[in-house]
Amino acid sequence: MKKIKFLILTLALPFLSTTVSAQNKSYPFDIKISGKGDQSIIFIPGFASSGAVWDETKSNYEKDFTCYTLTMAGFAGIKPQPNATFTNWENSIVNYIKENKIEKPIIIGHSMGGGLALAIASDYPELIKKIVVVDALPCLQALINPAFTSTENPDCSQMVNQMTSLTEEQFHQIQTNSISRLVAETSKRELVVSWSISSDRKTFAEMYCDFINTDLRLKIKNIKCPSLILLEDSFKTVKPAIEEQYKNLNNANLQYSNKGLHFVMYDDKEWYLNQLNNFLN
């Protein structure tokens, strides 16, 4: 049970290039557009992470794809915006796709970004060509309680107060203490910590509270596009629970990495890229 609780914490946490300001378009994210291709990929990072988490991934695809890389407002040094909720962020990404006439994009999301990919493909099944979900689940709380039901308008004030009351030193220490259980690749640990500590504390708490209250298990039955689910090695120990969560996703292809932790793109890079190449091609 302790292991499962920790898995929940780890999942929730953590060419010419043009930067598009989220503020100008009222989108709750900044975007970097790179590469050139008729097919587009939208990259969504995980909780408190920068879009830079995809840099090594993008370098393999910018020749053939147009890449849109998001960093969500309030995370990794991006200016926060009000009304930070999972649903608002989902709808804003969808609006961006529609307003910019991005035809049938592929969405690749890590952690909470994977949850957003699942939500978008569920609610707008005709909009997306394919999704790749990197180490994310339809419902984090269901690992502890399969009968979990989400709460409408959860009260996140206590979590916000606790998070914002921490000193910089305390917050930095918490992130540093947890990083060895999130990233096995030691050369990447300081980078991931830097994204967390440069995130807005209020957004951090609000989105954590909202995300762990999210349950997509039923609605993923609406997904029509091919779906690749790439999971960390330790999830093999709770495989029945993982597969139970994804049972309503008809086109799901669940694959478990051979080593490493939550940041699969760093910890099992060769396996991860092979999976992506086979799926995208």
Give the key terms.
281 residues, alpha/beta, 12 helices, 39% helix, globular
- Give the biggest beta sheet: 8 strands, mixed
Q: Which parts are unreliable, with pLDDT below 50 for 5 consecutive residues or more?
A: 6-24
Number of domains: 1
Order of helices and strands: HEHEEHEHEHEHHHHEHEHH
Q: What does it look like?
A:
39% of the residues lie in helices and 16% in strands. By secondary structure, the chain is α/β, with parallel strands linked by helices. It has an 8-stranded mixed beta sheet, sandwiched between helices. Helix 5 (112-123) links the parallel strand 5 (106-110) and strand 6. The longest helix is centred in the N-terminal third of the chain and has 14 residues, at 86-99. Mean pLDDT is 92; it is low at 6-24.
Describe the structure in brief.
With 281 residues, the protein is α/β, with parallel strands linked by helices. Helix content is 39%, strand content 16%.
